[in-house]
Structures are given as C-alpha cells and as structure tokens.
Design goal:
The structure holds two protein chains of two kinds. By secondary structure, chain A is of the alpha+beta class. Chain A is built from 17 helices and ten strands. Classes of the chains: A alpha+beta, B alpha/beta.
Chain lengths: 378, 175
C-alpha cells in the first residue's frame, strides 16, 4: 500500500438500502481499507408511530405497534397491550396467558430464522438464506391459520387474545416445530463448522459486557457476553406464562474471551435462543387450560381509561422493547406513548463498534447485532 | 460479571436522598423507584447510578409535553441485580427548556436525547451531536411531538384535499 492512501480519507455511504433490504444508510470514513469513523443514519422511513398512537384508541394501538417489527409481531404489540391492561386493571384469562406466551415464542423462532438467513446472505452465503426461510414459511402458515394473516397478526388485545387455538392451528404449529427441530441442527453445524464462516465472524465486533450495557444493548448481544439478562425470568409478567414451567435463560460464555462477545458468539447465542423457545413451547402446549380467551368486560373497560401511567416491557427477539403510556381522565386515546425499540440502541452502537474494523467487516458487525430498522424508524 | 448483593429500590432511594436532599424518591409497585430530580442534579443522580450499580442498563429517555410550556423528561434505567427500574423525572419550564446531557455517562442515551431534542425542542446542554435523527429537514424546529404541533389536517388543506373525519380528540390528540 502506498503511503498516500493512508494520508487521505475516503467517505463512503453504505446505503440508503432498499426498504426491503432494511432501509438504512451509514456514512463510513475509510483510511485505506479500515473504517475510522461510522455515522449510522436513521429516519429513512420514519412513520411517527408515537404521534399516530395518540390518535388511535386503546385497542387499535396494538396494531400500530406490531407494524414496527413485523418479524416479531406477537412480541412487538405486547408492551402496548401490557401498559393498557395495567392502567385499565384488566384480568387476563389463564388460557389467553398461555396462548400468548406460546405464540410469542413461535414468533421469536420465526424472527430468528429470518435473521439467520439474512445474516448468512450478508456474508455471501446465499444458500443459507433460503434454507431457514423455507422452514420459516411453516411458522407463517401456522400464524395464518390462527389469525388469517401471515405477518400482521394482531393477536394480543387488552384483556386477552383475539383468536382461539383449534386443531388445525396446533397441527400446523407442530409441523413447523418438528421441521425446525429436524433441520436446524444440521444446518447450524454446517454453517458454524465452516472455516470460512468462522474466519469471517470470530473476533469481529467484539465488546465487553460493560460496554454493551453502556451502549444500551440487550437481548442476545448481552446474553452472548455471559450475563443472563432476560426479562422473561428477571421481571416475570403475571399476564404471561413463563413462570408456569421450568426453563433456563440461555447464555454464551466464550472460553477465549470470557465476558466479551464477538459476532460468532452472538450467532451461537441466537441458536440457543431458538432451542429455548422450542423447549418453552413444547412444555406449555400441554398446559393450555380450557376457558375463555378474553375477559368479556375488557372491551368496555378499555374504551375509556382512567388517568394513569404504565410501563410495558417485553423481552423481544432483539432485546428489551418497552412502551411508556400516559393517559388522562376518561381518555379514549393515549396522552403520550413512548416506544423504546431495542435496535435503536444496537444501531447506534455501530458508531462505537465499527471504527477499527475493515470495510468488509462492517456488514458482519451490523448483521450480528440484528438491527431491524422498524425499531428505530418508529 | 459477579453477582453483586442486591440493593432494594427503597434503600437506594434513601442513599440518593441522603446525598442529594432535594431529590424525592418513592418506591412504587412493579419494582419501580421513582425519583423527582431537579434539573441541575440530573448528572449527579445518573452519575451515582453509574457508580453504585454495576449492571445499570440505560433503557430510555423521553419527553412529555404537559402543555402551557411545561415539560417533563423521564430517564429510565434497569438493574437486573436489583430487579429495580429507576424512573428519574425532571420537570422543565419555558418554551426553550434545557437540561444537561448524560450521554457521556451512558453513551446509549445519546440518540434518545437527540430524538427528544428534535421531537420536543428540549435542549441537552453539551450534547456531542445534536442533529436531526429521524425527522426530515423541513420539520427542524417544528417539534412534532409537542401538543401545539398542528398535525396533518392543516397540511391536507394546504394540498387542497378533504380532511378525514375528525377522530376522538380527548386524551392525546391536538386540534
């Protein structure tokens, strides 16, 4: 390399990507092949969801929430529903609690399958994009059977859920999980055992636990550092069924760099997350009790809410998603709703994690944090 | 990270009040510790959270427009060890409210502050990078999440279109 190249910096816009390929752009400043500055840009399809929520009633709001992250729709809509339930003081029937939890975990598997394919494609492994996405279709079939829609499911509603399980739903869910259990280990070992894949991901985008916490990272990026920070266990929600069964929060502790995580660890962690989700679903399915799926008084009670504030939180696929809700007396719509998307922070952290990496590794750091733009362009 | 001995919300609240007597701390249900913090003490209290709580996780910063030039900025932190959410509330007044940035203590709050600035016009003093984050340039300085912001209806009128049927306005909606 001639010395002149090192004297000059080059600015490259990585994006704006097409909306279907994320819809984001980062300005990278390069010296030679190395990134010295990264400026992630947001706002390419900002939908002002927080303002929209102020104009929708308390049952409609969940529909806006799930559109923030269609991949984890069952999880994304939940913080809003939880906050409304807290302010309105709604009771959720036992059957709805278990059904919600099962579908949230199915949504997690589906979302991770999507990420897994997409991350592989970002690394240039196109076959690994299609294989998990084929298996993902079977989950979508189950969602469609349940709600009539493959992505915009609008399942949870204040006071319960909208659609009941039937034999066909359970059968399709069973097919999806069986297929996943059958094929995932083979494909995982094929991918993770590949020397090329290891070379691309090991030691890339490495940070310590303390750094991760300071950047506001949560979910798999933190659990891959060895800290089992998981709201499902740490702050069990009385309206979900995670405390009905025994399960362990999956963590990944690397032997080479304990307390730190790189792109490879985060990949390992996400496969463990999927296995845990399957375990939770398998344990909960026989426990679905009989009974109503929604509190019959919920509709009336959620028409107008008393004055109050509530904070709904859920452990999403990508980390902690929350919603802070403030209502005024007899309000039909929220006074203020603040959404916290986990990817808002993971996308921001590129600013600190990318400098020093090679240009070709930028996409590895990005993909390994699994940022979904809907969570920052709310 | 080793598992530290948990400090309950109430105990930590007392520690804050002992150090900064003009802060009010109230433990609430769901493991929430609510602290009403004067605007000039926010850096001290956040610094104390950073020092005392090893696994402090910056969850959110956001503004609330209470109308008549009154604003509230709410900071939310979570500690897994203590199973406590720390909700710090700062009241601000005036049409150009200001509060110190905490993004040097918790870098994860940098974008949250940036968003609060562009949406509410709350200035974060010494913030390293106060640029538009989510909004297009034509909305700079319009502060769309303030209740006084005139929403789409007037814009439709400008574009000579029929406004949609009015939605219920109690609660959040502004005219």
């Amino acid at each position: 390399m001639s010395p002149d190249i090192l004297d000059e910096t080059t600015e490259i816009w990585f994006g704006p990507q097409h909306v279907s390929a994320h819809g984001w752009a980062a300005k990278l400043t390069l010296v030679g092949d190395f990134v010295v500055e990264c400026d992630p840009n947001a706002g390419y399809f900002h939908r002002s969801a927080e303002k929209c929520l102020e104009f929708r009633n308390f049952r409609q709001g969940a529909l806006i929430m799930e559109r923030l992250c269609m991949l984890e729709a069952f999880l994304a809509e939940y913080p809003y529903v939880q906050a409304v339930e807290k302010i309105a003081g709604l009771e959720v029937p036992e059957r709805a609690k278990v059904m919600r939890t099962i579908m949230m975990e199915a949504s997690r598997i589906h979302s991770l399958q999507f990420w897994w394919g997409q991350f592989s494609a970002e690394l240039g492994l196109f076959a690994m994009l299609l294989w998990p996405w084929v298996d993902r279709e079977f989950f979508l079939d189950a969602f469609e059977e349940l709600s009539g829609s493959r992505h915009a499911v609008s399942y949870s509603t204040p006071g319960g859920v909208k659609y009941d399980f039937n034999d066909k739903v359970l059968e399709k869910l069973d097919i999806a999980i069986a297929r996943f259990e059958d094929r995932m280990p083979v494909m995982r070992d094929m991918l993770m055992g590949s020397p090329t894949f290891r070379a691309r991901t090991e030691g890339i985008g490495q940070y310590t636990l303390k750094q991760g916490l300071k950047f506001g990272l949560s979910g798999p990026p933190i659990k891959a550092c060895g800290l089992p920070m998981d709201l499902r266990k740490d702050a069990p929600d009385p309206n979900l069924a995670y405390d009905m069964i025994d399960w362990e929060v999956p963590v990944t502790e690397s032997e080479e760099h304990p307390g730190e995580s790189d792109a490879y660890d985060r990949m390992v962690q996400r496969f463990r997350e999927m296995e845990t989700s399957v375990e939770i679903i398998r344990k909960l399915l026989p426990l679905v009790p009989e009974g109503p799926i929604v509190d019959p008084k919920a509709r009336g009670k959620s028409n107008r809410l008393p004055e109050g504030e509530a904070y709904g939180r859920v452990e999403g696929t990508r980390g902690i998603s929350t919603l802070w809700l403030k209502t005024t007396e007899k309000a039909q719509t929220p006074y203020r709703a603040k959404i916290r998307g986990p990817c808002f922070n993971s996308y921001y952290s590129l600013k600190h994690l990318v400098p020093g990496a090679k240009f070709a590794d930028f996409i590895v750091v990005f993909g390994s944090l699994d940022p979904y733009p809907g969570w920052w362009d709310r | 990270m080793s598992e530290d001995t948990p400090i309950s919300g109430a105990t930590f609240g007392r520690q804050i009040v002992n150090k900064f007597p003009d802060v009010e701390c109230t433990p609430k249900e769901d493991g929430i510790l609510e602290c009403i913090v004067p605007a000039d003490k926010i850096r001290d209290v956040v610094g104390m959270i950073d020092e005392e709580i090893a696994d402090a996780f910056p969850e959110s910063v956001f503004g609330v427009d209470l109308q008549e030039d009154k604003f509230e900025v709410i900071y939310i932190f979570w500690s897994r060890t203590n199973r406590t959410q720390y909700h710090l509330r700062v009241s601000l007044e005036g049409s150009n409210p200001e509060v110190d940035t905490i993004s040097d203590i918790f870098p994860g709050m940098e974008w949250h502050e940036r968003e609060t600035w562009e949406m509410f016009g709350i200035n974060f003093k010494d913030h390293p990078d106060l640029r538009l984050l989510l909004l297009p340039e034509e909305l700079e300085g319009k502060y769309p999440l303030r209740k006084s912001f005139v929403t789409d209806r007037s814009r439709l009128k400008e574009a000579d279109r029929t406004p949609p049927k009015p939605k219920p306005t109690e609660g959040g909606a502004s005219e």
